[in-house]
Amino acid sequence: MALLPILHYPDVRLKKVARPVARVDERVRALVKDMAATMYDADGIGLAATQVDVHEQIIVIDVSATRDELKVFINPEILELTGETVATEEGCLSVPGIYDVVERREGVRVRALGEDGESFELSADGLLAVCIQHEIDHLKGRVFVDYLSQLKQTRIKGKMRKLDRQSA
Ligand SMILES: [Zn+2]
């Protein structure tokens, strides 16, 4: 098990579109383990493979307070968005220290493969639904900052460049 380096916005690699996983094998399961370890270590509630520079459709999520309810989505596909539009303050491990409000739908029905390669469907609402939409966006090359105004995007890019210079 290894901790993986997380790409920081506005790294252009965060814009890459992830390809589907052809086969859920040992390689994929090892990657999932590393992604989960990386997410827990960084105190995040979700991580997409794109964020660790692997451009395959893999997401790990744990929105539980106890940090012991890992959910793995391979080749996730949104079947339906349900409910009202809700505004939630979001953050992202690729945009450390930045939080802002994004509007998304309050419910989602998703189909994906699990770590065992079996297909499953899940209906979610609340924080889990928001998180699923946020992470699937990553697989499409989209970061939550993209939903904010140009002014905010410019400001956040500046902050991130400064942060990465300091830690370099
Ligand atoms: Zn994110």
Give keywords.
single chain, 168 residues, alpha+beta, Peptide Deformylase, five-stranded antiparallel sheet, 3 helices, 29% strand, binds zinc ion
Model description:
This protein is of the alpha+beta class and 168 residues long. It has one domain (12-167): Peptide deformylase (Peptide Deformylase, Alpha-Beta Complex), CATH 3.90.45.10. 29% of the residues lie in helices and 29% in strands. The protein is built from three helices and five strands. It has helices at residues 26-41, 126-139, 150-167; strands at residues 46-48, 58-61, 71-90, 100-113, 119-125. The protein has a five-stranded antiparallel beta sheet. Strand 4 (100-113) and strand 5 (119-125) form a beta hairpin. The two termini are 25 Å apart. The site of zinc ion has 5 residues, from helix 2.
Total domain units? 1
Low-confidence stretches: none
The count of strands amounts to 5
| CATH superfamily placement | Peptide deformylase
CATH topology: Peptide Deformylase
* Distance between the first and last residues' Cα: 25 Å
Q: What's the pLDDT, averaged over the residues? A: 97
% residues in beta strands: 25-35%
CATH class: Alpha Beta
**Small molecules held by this entry:** zinc ion
Order of helices and strands: HEEEEEHH
- SS-based structural class? alpha+beta
- The CATH architecture comes to Alpha-Beta Complex
